[in-house]
Amino acid sequence: MGQLLGRAVPKSLSHLFMILISLIMIVPFLWMLSTSFKLQEEVFQYPIQWIPQVFHFENYTEVWTSIPFPLYYFNSLKVSVLVTLGQLITCSLAGYAFARLDFPGKNRLFIMYFAAFMIPYQVIMIPQYFVIKKLGLVDSHWALILLEIFSPYGVFLMRQFLSGISKELSEAARIDGCNEFGIFARIILPLAKPALATLGIFAFSWVWNDFQAPLIYLTSDSLKTLPLGLASLNGEFTSQTQLVMAGTVLSLIPVVTVFLFFQRYFISGITAGSVKG
To answer: In percent, how much of the chain has pLDDT > 90?
Structure first.
């Protein structure tokens, strides 16, 4: 009895701690949802009125019409989907090469490639801009797409996951006459769904919420993504926080949809390689 109680108490405390952390993390989302139904003068009232006396649903229609919201939404979807698909292709191919193929200098090349993940973006921001400018891609969605379709983290994630797949499967396929790309496409990729889903969630969320890169490379209003469009609601002397929050709530729909669609693969994908060295 004492042993059971001794095990139950730490477990209960850990659950209580996780619940507390979850509540702390969800507070900003609750404030965002509450603010999206308020008037501007009600936004910063103290104490906070979590449930508005009057729900102003017109904030959602106003944010849709006060800026080219549908166009910004489409631009974000376009860039996010193309970058996500690009990362799934490039990272899975590179991860397969590092995990399953033998070639000279493989480990050194992987270490050098992964080291790029540790370089702060601010260090490479200016050189990247000059490269994109030389290519004539400034003020183009291609600037964002080409810079984002390669991900050192994605390659690392795929390599770690694919390293855990039995190599006997590949050997059996080679004996049957399957070429390397056939092994990758027909055997390895179907088994890598958890890692692909995890990479897809991270890639889509990152690009969808990215503010800095579009701010640097996009100048035309017709090319702006949703984060830039929502930022335009707040001027130097004016603030429309309630509209920004309403737009942010609408912007969460694709991210939540992607997560819910791939969530059954997410946990196994994010823990890939956590035991294997």
So the answer is: 25
Dihedral of the alpha carbons of 109, 114, 115, 119, in degrees to the nearest 10: 140
How far, in Å, CA of 140 to CA of 84, rounded? 18
The residues near 276 (Cβ < 8 Å, ≥ 6 apart) are: 160, 163, 164
User: Contact 139/219 with Cβ under 8 angstroms?
Assistant: yes
Give the span between the Cα atoms of 232 and 234, in whole angstroms: 5
Residue 38 CB: number of other CB atoms within 10 A?
22
- DSSP annotation of 54 reads S
Residue bearing tokens 């969808």: 208
Overall pTM surpassing 0.85 (yes/no): no
Do 207 and 214 form a contact (C-beta atoms < 8 A)? no
**pLDDT of 256 strictly over 80:** yes
Q: Where are the alpha helices (DSSP H) in the chain?
A: 2-35, 40-43, 58-66, 69-100, 106-115, 121-134, 141-148, 152-163, 167-175, 180-183, 189-191, 193-209, 212-217, 226-231, 241-270
User: Which amino acid would we find at residue 144?
Assistant: L
Given this model, what pLDDT does residue 166 score?
82
Choice among 89-98, 125-134, 180-189 with the minimum mean pLDDT? 180-189
CA torsion angle 187 188 191 192 (round to 10) = -160
